[in-house]
Amino acid sequence: MVSPRAAVSALPAYRPGRNPADLAREIGVPKAVKLASNEVAFPPLPAVVAAISQVAGETNRYPDNGAAVLTGDLARRYGVDPGQVAVGCGAVTLLQQVAQAYCDPGTGLVYAWRSFEMYPLLARVAGATAVQVPLVPGTDGGRADTHDLDGLLAAVDETTRVVLVCNPNNPTGTAVRRPALERFLDAVPATTLVVLDEAYREFVTDPEVPDGVELMRGRPNVAVLRTFSKAWGLAGLRVGYLLAEDPAVAEAVRKTHVPFGVSMVAQAAAVAALASEDEVRARVAEVTAERERLTAALRERGQSVADSQANFVWLPLGERTAELAAALEARAVITRPFAGEGLRVTVGTPEEDDVFLAALDEIVRG
Ligand SMILES: Cc1ncc(COP(=O)(O)O)c(C=O)c1O
Hints:
Elements: H1 6-9, H2 20-27, E1 33-34, H3 46-56, H4 68-78, E2 85-88, H5 91-102, E3 108-113, H6 118-126, E4 129-134, H7 149-155, E5 160-166, H8 178-187, E6 193-197, H9 212-216, E7 222-227, E8 240-244, H10 247-255, H11 264-275, H12 277-300, E9 312-315, H13 321-330, E10 333-334, E11 336-338, E12 342-346, H14 350-365
Parallel strand pairs: 1-10, 3-4, 3-5, 5-6, 6-7
Antiparallel strand pairs: 2-8, 7-8, 9-12, 11-12
The structure holds pyridoxal-5'-phosphate.
The site of pyridoxal-5'-phosphate has 13 residues, from α5.
């Protein structure tokens, strides 16, 4: 019998979220609402659809392995050299590339917990030691759980190759502010790479939450990770990017890529999305306005919800989480439960969110 590596055998099997069409069929309703994966509800922009159609006839060829056009556009947008950019098949794949490039077996990868669920898996697959630093607990009705930057710093030792800081944090939606993050970045040893995972950056409205690309400047051990999956509306195409102050970091990340991993269609769509930034910004403004409405509506219902800087809200329901998620599913609303901790609810359209709120009211009324 062949056996995978022990680290791989120990990984939990991938459990995809409920598919809304399957759920609707199962419970006999015309439509289910999916508020589980932090996608935006808008269809792709017309310019994106046009760009995809245009390259569709060329897909007998391999894509550009170096994604030169997209890399150039990103470099111009952020005022960096193309050598400081690594484009990847989604931010998740870039995280894997970072782990492969920097984490030898036995080295440490440090991150806050609870945070993005891929982080522990990355560490395990790389054979690295995952060092999890608990979030600072929030207070009831006050601040939600957020990063403990002093704790993260204390966890960094000579074996630590990478620290991941998810800002805003998935799934709590909380964000660290400029002075604290600057102090942290200045204190991390120069031999440890800090990756600021800013998958939700575009939804940040608090001016005190810094743009990682600004903080990266002058700090050669800092890189910033972004994605086209969320605000830019391209989750189905898989494209993200890493920007690094030190071109050697971007180069190391590019070296561990899967050849031709970013499809021709994804590259063309991302280029078209960047060229439609005004429309994307207008959509993001709709999402953040709806986030505030949803937050207020939940608070009116007595739910403890922190201010979110992302396109989702977090209900710290503890032991009640799984039960509420199941009750919502029975009413055709799919959310993302973290059993024993809380429920993450993606900001949908106002109509979708009203379906969620009505389902919640029905459950609470019993
Ligand atoms: C914090 C965080 N980082 C990265 C990603 C990955 O995004 P992508 O779709 O680009 O792989 C996600 C997706 O949910 C995320 O929440």
